[in-house]
Design goal:
The protein has nine helices and no strands. The protein is mainly α. The protein has a domain of 159 residues. The protein is elongated and about 95 Å long. It starts with a helix and ends in a 5-residue tail after the last helix.
Length: 264
């Protein structure tokens, strides 16, 4: 009996009874609150990727379009001529030349108007009224006054329209020293052709000298315009005074001749 019992125990040890198959090792149960701790640790990582203060949620297309517009605006600002740039200086000189030439043409037109009007008035006075002075002596004074003022106005208008040329002997050394303006025909016509070409070639290679000569040329145009308009002002003033005094004297002469006419 004892031998059988020992043999049975040995068999049980060698062949144990089949039990349920072993499963995969189960994951440890997370402690309560572990998920919330992990979420809190991940939040700073996402915020660190963004720049501080950036809240832009625009699509990539809109961002690229805004960047392109900014580049275009910057390019336009760069291309825009600044004060003192070469383009701005050229525009200033071009505008100044055009303004002075227009004013000179306007002054010549005004002078031509005064020459025409005064010439017509003097012609009418000489042709029509002079023949009646013999038997109407009262017309002598108004005719003389009006003719005198019209003649003076005509003279000043002719002086305003008369060309002015200040010619002086100029050398190439004076042009190089800046004592003569090679752009004004009154100066460079005294130079030989070879000196004029050489002086212009040197002038265009030096922008500062070019601007200086253009400034002097504009000053010369302004001086001529000042003389023209001063003479025109005198001419128009004389014409106005002549008309006023002439009309008053003619009315007085007619009134006096009517009052002194003997009754029929």
């Amino acid at each position: 009996m004892a031998d059988e019992t020992r043999s049975g125990d040995s068999e049980l040890k060698e062949n144990p009874s089949p039990g349920p198959p072993p499963g995969p090792p189960s994951a440890p149960t997370p402690a309560p609150g572990a998920d919330s701790i992990k979420d809190q640790e991940q939040i700073p990582e996402t915020t660190q990727d963004q720049e501080p203060g950036s809240r832009s949620t625009e699509p990539d297309g809109q961002v690229d379009g805004a960047a392109a517009e900014k580049k275009k605006k910057r390019k336009k600002e760069k291309d825009k001529p600044k004060a003192g740039s070469a383009r701005g200086v050229e525009t200033m000189f071009r505008t100044s030349y055009r303004t002075h030439l227009d004013l000179s043409a306007l002054a010549d037109n005004k002078a031509n108007i005064m020459i025409s009007i005064n010439g017509i008035i003097i012609s009418i006075l000489m042709a029509s009224i002079v023949d009646h002075i013999d038997y109407k002596p009262a017309l002598l004074l108004p005719t003389s006054v009006l003719s005198l003022f019209c003649l003076l106005s005509l003279v000043y208008a002719v002086l305003a329209a008369r060309p002015r040329v200040t010619r002086r002997e100029t050398t190439l050394e004076e042009v190089r020293a800046g004592r003569a303006n090679i752009l004004f025909f009154g100066n460079f016509t005294a130079l030989p052709e070879e000196d004029f070409v050489e002086g212009m070639d040197e002038l265009v290679k030096d922008p500062q000298r070019t601007y200086t000569n253009m400034t002097r040329d504009i000053y010369g145009l302004g001086s001529v315009l000042e003389t023209k308009y001063r003479l025109l002002r005198v001419s128009y003033t004389l014409f106005m005074l002549g008309l006023i005094f002439g009309v008053i004297l003619f009315l007085g002469a007619f009134a006096w001749s009517t009052g002194t006419q003997p009754p029929l």
